Amino acid sequence: MSDIILARVSQTLATEQTLESLVRQLLEMLELVTHMESTYLTKIDNATRLQHIVYARNSSQMQIPEGFSVPWDDTLCKRAVEEQHYFSNDVATRWQECQAAQSLGINTFFTTPVHLADGSLYGTLCAASRDTHSYSLNSEHVLHLFASLIARYIEKESLVMQLREANAALVAHSYTDALTGLANRRAVYELLDALFERVRRNQTRVLVAFIDLDDFKEINDIHGHQAGDDFLIQVGHRLTSVMSDTDIVGRLGGDEFLVACEISSSGQKQPFIELLRRQICGHYQLCNHSIHYPGASIGAIDVCPQEMDAESAIQAADAAMYIDKKYRQRVGVAT
C-alpha cells in the first residue's frame, strides 16, 4: 500500500494544480491509509480563535462538513497539539469535555499539525472515525508527509500571490503619474485607444481636451517647487472631481493634462471647456502661500471616432490649445 500511495503522490505532485485539488487527492489517499471515515484539513484563525474545516472527505455516515467552524479552544486538535498526543482510539474517555467530538460520535482520532516554514501553525490534518482503529506507524508517517506537502504548497501559493500582487503594483506604477496619481502619458494613450474603440461600438462621440497650465513656471520660481507640486496635485483633484470613473483624466507631463469623455451627441464642447475652466481657475493654498490662479489654456475637440483616431485627436486638441493660449495672451487673460 505504501508504494502505491507514494507513486500516487509523485504523480499528483508532477501535475500543476491548485491547493484544493492537491488536498482533495491527499485526503482520498489518507482515507486509504488510515481506513478512517473522514479525513480533513483545518485552518486556525488566531484572531477570532476559530478552527475552520477547509476541505473534507467523508466516506460513511459520519460527516465533517466543509466550511464548519468551531471555537479553537473547544477542539480535539487543540488538545492533541497541546498534549502532543496525536492519536486516540478512546476519544469519548480521553477528551470527554469536547462537545463537537461527542456530537459527531468520534471514537478514533489521528491528527498532525500543519506548520509553515516560519514556524507558524496553519492548521491541522486529521482523520476521524466512529469505529475503533489501532495505532499505525504507517498512518503517522503519511500524515506527516501530507502535512508537509500541504504546508509547502500553501507557501508556494502565497509566494505566487505575492509575486502577482508585486507585478500588478509594478504595472500600475508604470501607468501612474508619480506626483498626481493620475494616468501618465503611456496610460492616457492606451486608455484613449480603448475609449475610441468603445465609442465606435456605441456609435457615439468623444470630447478630448488638452490643458496647459499657463504661468506654471512663475509659481515654481516665486513660491518654490513644493508649491508647484502642490498646485499640480490640486489641479488633478479638481479635474477628477467633475469626471466620472469611465472618463479619462491624465497628466501628460510637466504642466500638461488631458481629459476625455464619451458624449451622446455633438454640441457639448463649449460647455465642457467652460466646466474645466471653472474647475482650474480660482483660489489655491500652496504650502504657506495663497494664490489666485487665473486659468489655463484649453483646447478641446469633438471627435467622431470613425473619422479620427486617438493619436490624431490628441494632436488636434494640442493644436486647439495653442490657439487658445495665443488668444488669452493677446487679450491679457493669462498673467
TrEMBL record:
Q: Which GO terms describe its cellular component?
A: plasma membrane
Pathway connected to this protein: Purine metabolism; 3',5'-cyclic di-GMP biosynthesis
Q: Main EC class of this protein?
A: transferase
Question: Reaction catalysed by this chain?
Answer: 2 GTP = 3',3'-c-di-GMP + 2 diphosphate
Report any Pfam family annotated for this entry: GGDEF
The EC number(s) given in the record are 2.7.7.65
One GO process term, biological-process aspect? cell adhesion involved in single-species biofilm formation
Q: What is this protein called?
A: diguanylate cyclase
| Organism expressing this protein natively | Scandinavium lactucae
